[in-house]
Specification:
This protein has three helices and 21 strands. The chain is mainly beta and 433 residues long. The protein has two domains: 114 residues, no CATH class; 311 residues, membrane protein fhac: a member of the omp85/tpsb transporter family (Porin, Beta Barrel). Strand 14 and strand 15 form a beta hairpin. Helix 2 packs across helix 3. The protein is globular. It starts with a helix and ends with a strand.
Length: 433
């Protein structure tokens, strides 16, 4: 199957979303039958999408919070209504599309007033590591068509390689419990393996991938999904290093995710988890790619005086033993202080702790000061030989989380890792997740 056919399929799917206007099914009563619901303030987000979100909020309430309320034997309807109002406000905030949500109830008159966040965001990209420099631009919209759909497109170019990326994600296909998306990637980049601060091996890799995924929400906070992609890898020689063999394959997977956190603009209170298992098939270079496993569990707590503590457990593993198919690690949470995608390994198990202290709140956003500590156990691959090692990083930083724009927090961090980069400074885009 050629890339052009997939691009054509994506175009038809994308345009159908633009051309077809599907009204959400009648929203079940949020409080009582015969109520009159009015939604105001939504200049970008369509009312039909807000009503579909409220359907899901009601489902979560009925499955989870209503049981807790019955256990407390609430007798006052006013108390129950107030609890539901607080719940619906937070549920709408969790979409990350609104900077403010107000809900009032007078008899059977329900009024919801929202303030949209700006969601069409241009992001410049600049990266420098050694002699390699890269520049690029990405455009992101997290509320496409006013229906909560997500699209990002962009690319990079530079001495280390070029890349292009396009992703479309729909969190609720036709206002249902199904979600899905498509991803197209095309990259040509230099890849180096580091031992300490030294480049010990490397190659140039051309990677083309196109595929999609489909998920279904089996419980209010739990989604199961399937994914498949068609991938092609071509390798070229760098300097005097060895070169892996080319490969084409399909990559199919199953994943399970749990979203139990509540969005608080500068952090997310609660627990999120993600587990995926992927396996290749129809490889031209048989048994080269290998099965991959990914696990991520993140919990955050609101500590005294709005301080936030986050613990994140991550596990990545590939069962491939072939040269060129190891995991390329570095840069992500749990592995800060490693060269960006510059440590090759077959396994990584990491634990990170981040402690955030808000320094200043305003209507525009929140400034935070934070400290972090990362520890990781790696099965590192050096010159096609595996060895176990443990590495740790620590540091401090400051981040600004913008409230009126659905934009990642802008952070500047200083840290140290004794095994790889030593003292390092990093600029991050993060959502307090």
């Amino acid at each position: 199957m050629k890339l052009s056919k997939t691009a054509f399929f994506f175009s038809i799917f994308f345009l159908s979303q633009l051309a077809v206007s599907i009204k959400a099914k009648g929203t079940p009563p949020l409080f009582e039958r015969g109520e009159n619901l009015t939604i105001t303030g939504n200049k970008r987000t369509q009312e039909s999408y807000i009503r579909s979100v409220l359907q899901n909020c009601l489902w979560i309430w009925e499955q989870s919070y209503s049981k807790k309320s019955s256990e407390k034997k609430e007798t006052k309807s006013e108390d129950k209504d107030q609890n539901k109002i607080s719940f619906y406000k937070q549920c709408l905030i969790n979409t990350k599309l609104f900077s403010k949500v107000d809900i009032s109830k007078k008899g059977k008159q329900i009024k919801i007033d929202v303030v949209d966040r700006w969601t069409l965001i241009p992001i410049p990209y600049v990266r420098g590591q050694g002699d390699a420099k890269a520049f690029g631009f990405f455009l992101i919209d997290t509320n496409l068509f006013g229906r909560g759909k997500f699209i990002t497109a962009g690319g990079t170019f530079g001495s280390g390689g070029n890349s292009g990326f396009l992703m479309y994600r729909d969190p609720s296909l036709f206002f249902s419990k199904w979600n899905g998306g498509v991803i197209l990637r095309n990259a040509k980049q230099d890849s180096y393996n580091f031992q300490g601060k030294d480049e010990i091996e490397g190659f140039q890799e051309r990677f083309i991938s196109y595929g999609g995924y489909l998920g279904y929400k089996i419980y209010p906070k739990t989604t199961v999904g399937l994914s498949v992609s068609k991938d092609k890898k071509e390798f070229s020689k760098l300097e005097s290093f060895s070169t892996p063999q080319n490969n084409e394959y399909f990559f199919g997977g199953i994943n399970l995710s749990y979203r139990g956190s509540q969005y608080k603009f500068y952090f997310k209170e609660g627990t999120d988890a993600f587990l995926s298992l992927k396996a290749p098939f129809a490889e031209t270079n048989k048994d080269a790619k290998g099965i991959e496993v990914k696990l991520n569990v993140s919990s955050q707590w609101n500590i005294t005086k709005d301080h936030a503590l986050q613990l994140t457990l991550g596990h990545l593993q590939t069962f491939s033993k072939r040269f060129g198919y190891a995991l390329k690690l570095g840069g992500q949470k749990g592995l800060r202080g490693l060269p960006l995608k510059g440590v090759w390994a077959t396994r990584s198990t990491s634990l990170s702790a981040d402690y955030q202290i808000p320094l200043y709140f305003s209507k525009y956003g929140t400034w935070t000061f934070s400290t972090f500590l990362d520890g990781a156990s790696l099965n590192q691959v050096i010159n096609q030989n595996e060895s176990d090692m443990f590495t740790a990083s620590y540091g401090v930083g400051a981040t600004f989380f913008i409230k009126k724009v659905n934009f990642p927090g802008l952070g500047l961090f200083y840290g140290r890792n004794n095994d790889f980069l030593g003292d390092f400074v990093s600029f991050t885009l993060g959502r307090g997740e």
